[in-house]
Amino acid sequence: MNRPESVANHVLDRLDIFVAEDLLLLDEIVHARGALIHECSMEGAEARLLIGPGKPIISVSTSNYINPYRRRFSIVHELGHLEMHRGNGLLRSCTKLDIQERPAGNSVDAEQEANQFASAFLIPARFVERPFAENAPSFDLISEWSEKLQTSLTATALRFTRFTLEPVAVVYSFQGKIQYFQPSSEFTELGVFPDVNHPVGLNTGARMLFNRKEVSRQWHEVRAAGGFERIEMPLIGGIRLENCPLGCQIMMLY
Ligand SMILES: [Zn+2]
After folding, report:
1. What is 3-122's CATH number, 1.10.10, 3.10.20, 2.50.20, 1.10.357?
2. For residue 19, how far is its CA from the centre of ligand 1 (angstroms)?
3. Confidence of residue 227 (pLDDT cuts 50, 70, 90)
4. The pTM is what?
5. How far is the centre of ligand 1, averaged over its atoms, from the C-alpha of 27 (Å)?
């Protein structure tokens, strides 16, 4: 377990959070940790943490472009800074690039630590470890937990790869090109990797999704014979992310 995950678990324990519904009470959570949430318009930042003479203040942007799930992630990202980086200055401004629902590896960078904290806190092992390990990979399962915990599909799908016992990779693409992928440990052992920065394979279900064929608002199961250009793996499904009009989608390889 990395440090942000163990700090997140510790804070959840201190807050006595043992049912998933309690995680929805973010105002109360932040208050119980001695801070306040302040919503305001912001330029150049998505969220901020101010540690002054009074209570620490977590400010979060009121921009309409930020959906409620993303806002929750941003608030808990700042809570992560408060819990882990309190001594590192009085004001921390975090941009859209700092706050990523994709926690990268075991990075020691403070922004990545705060992202790992947010992911571990909002989608905690205590609630998802068993269902993610015991159920077959499916977007229905990920979607169900995304709604229950009010976390984005991307964050929930990435977290799924941490607990599933199956060889699964979540692939995130933007405008038809693979931006990154997150493999489960079983998938890593296969030794195959989607080709990052290359277009999604032409005859795959992913490409069909990208071309808006057979795409609906629902999770759409796509059976594809081929995989990406360099690997032969079936795709079990994909979804176009609705909050990304320019064409982001996540897919799952299994
Ligand atoms: Zn930050």
Report:
1. 1.10.10
2. 27
3. very low
4. 0.82
5. 19
